[in-house]
Amino acid sequence: MMNANVAQGRMATATDEAAAEPILRVRNLKRHFDVSPPWLNRVLERKPRQFLRAVDGIDFEIKKGETFGLVGESGCGKSTAARLAVGLYAPSSGSIEFEGVDIGPLSRKQMAPLRSRMQMIFQDPYASFNPRWRVSKIIAEPIRVFGLLKTAAEVDARVAELLTQVGLMPVDGDKYPHEFSGGQRQRISIARALASNPDFIVCDEPTSALDVSVQAQILNLMRDLQRQYRLTYMFISHDLAVVFHISDRVGVMYLGAMVEQAPSAELLRNPRHPYTRMLLDAIPDLDMSGRARTPVSGEVPSPISPPSGCTFHPRCPHANARCTSERPATIATDGGGQVACHAVEEGRI
Amino acid sequence: MNNNKTNSGALLDVKGLRIEFPTRRGTLTAIDGVSLSLKAGEILGVVGESGAGKSLTGTAITGLLERPGRIAGGEIHFNGQRIDNLPSEAMRKLRGKQIGSIFQDPLTSLNPLFSVGRQLIETIRTHTDLTPRQARARAIEMLTQVGIPAPEQRIDQYPHQFSGGMRQRVVIALALCVNPKLVIADEPTTALDVSVQAQIIDLLKTLCREHGSAVMLVTHDMGVIAETCDRVAVMYAGRLVEIGPVQEVVKHARHPYTRGLMGSIPKLGEEVEHLVQIDGAMPRLSHIPQGCAFNPRCPYATARCREEKPEFANVGQGEVACWLWDGVDPATDPDRLFSNVTLAQRARQQADGVGSAPKKSMQACEQEV
Ligand SMILES: Nc1ncnc2c1ncn2[C@@H]1O[C@H](COP(=O)(O)OP(=O)(O)OP(=O)(O)O)[C@@H](O)[C@H]1O
Ligand SMILES: Nc1ncnc2c1ncn2[C@@H]1O[C@H](COP(=O)(O)OP(=O)(O)O)[C@@H](O)[C@H]1O
Ligand code: SF4
Ligand code: SF4
Ligand SMILES: [Mg+2]
Ligand SMILES: [Mg+2]
Which of B183, B193, B191, B246 minimizes the C-alpha distance to B215? Predict the structure, then answer.
């Protein structure tokens, strides 16, 4: 049923289909963390094993050259999904295809050539830099790890080129990370990510620690690089306006599930899932229209013991008996999106 | 700006505030002549890139400025009383009872060793005559007001048992439990989800309306400003560059920095290939440019801007410190002025052979602001 609907959803965009093949295809992907109390406590206090379902069966595709954005409240599984997508976490189940190849069963060695084509950028680049390395060494690391260039002169030239591409100067390579501002450090991490000529870059809150002015510089740079190298991005931010600005398609996660996804303009214009509506409604309005918004109710429940049925039901104004018992299936929408909600399927909303 | 007059009717009146940090290599001026005032029941938003001096201004008002920083000039009046030179004990009393503060990181304001209720009750009892029983009832009432579910049960829990958003609400309850006349909220919702942010903003607004408290709200989020504030102050490199009613500043900014800042924010439903970009970065305190501090990044800078520091002028219903507005009819529509100036600017730039660095952002400003 799922696949039939996905296919149907894609019909609408059949024209771009040939032009843009999915670079990443994720099916029923799950990652559960074992958060059980220590063995002794389990035995003595008769506590059961416990699993936290950080990502609990998500499906999505990202087309080459596009940006797929992920939004959702803190703890809903965005970062876990991102790490799964580049192979930093092994899935508990489900599949991830990169250019049609299922990367799940690949050995480390088989995975190596793919690794160089996927990179990740984080919120706090400083944490991922060795503070005692000069910037040139930091940027050259992927080149060295993947053995991409032979001579030192070639590496130096490439590093200088990368620094220029991200708006820094070749002489900056001689400095240390602490000599740079937050925005410049993010430029360095982008240069490092580009060093291995990747096709796919996962960006987890890359601008969340930056001022809006610096954020604009970084977002503009990322867009230019995307156009220039036909990069594919997966982009995560808790700032919805940023995600909608940069993304072609946006997915909304709630407690490890993908509750809705659609082309960004469509999702903004015509959100279907009650959770998407709640999130969009909570964004403060720059137009000062003073609209009365429905108050956001409740907190995200614990992912260790999520609610039954549709996990959003305790907070949902449209929940009914079916919602509390049956997990909604994902269906295609007219606008080229997908949504998992009984009320939408039944035509109630 | 009415620098020398006392702003009668203002609850808070900051005049010509100057904060310095003595260092081995000379004195750094972190806040340079900031003047602003707040009426009872009013919310003033404060925006600007990090390092602009927003937090320092807030700490000076609450008397929490730490050495070696010192107030080197200006005066702060609260409720008709001068407070910048109060002895620390008197200031401490004022701070608990009349001036509340909310900081970005709730963990720094909460003691992890005491239950949430104990912290609330102690604060309430220090500043009121309530009995322990009454204070507990008041604490529960506060938790209810800040939207903590089942407050009777949660009051005896410890901070780590609360989620980030709930801890921030507890901090707000702590700041507001004795109905302070003034609340300094320094980025209270940065790093929180929009859902939680919306709850906290609504709460601040309601409490402000119900108790007539004044709020100085520091935030990066222009949407939050637009929805909550009556007026907005824009800071750059330790100076105030623009202040005015929220609609004027958000929709018709007069200062090029404010324009750049507004344009750099992605707006929902507005599809643009590139955001407006202010090139460069805020100067370090040791290298604040002569004249207008913004001049190296300003697409409209002229020779005068590099020499003379602009003074505040009344424009529209607000005030702005920018030479562009010198001698311009205050009623001029800023949008029109900016497009005209840009043309004049081009000619001038060609005339004095200004470098090409800020061109990109200038074009962006022309197209999109
Ligand atoms: N290594 C781990 N071990 C156990 N639990 C984990 C681990 N990593 C993540 N989790 C849990 O999985 C859930 C999803 O976490 P994740 O970091 O993916 O959230 P997120 O959506 O990125 O949140 P945020 O917006 O706060 O970054 C959370 O409940 C988190 O506590
Ligand atoms: N203890 C200190 N010593 C020296 N400089 C300081 C100190 N505290 C703040 N500053 C400087 O004062 C300026 C304003 O800081 P702050 O008020 O924290 O900015 P904002 O809150 O707008 O980000 C910055 O340049 C900062 O580096
Ligand atoms: S399935 Fe039911 S509870 Fe879940 S979002 Fe839809 S209406 Fe609400
Ligand atoms: S005074 Fe000059 S440099 Fe400063 S903001 Fe105005 S135009 Fe730009
Ligand atoms: Mg995360
Ligand atoms: Mg600050």
Answer: B183
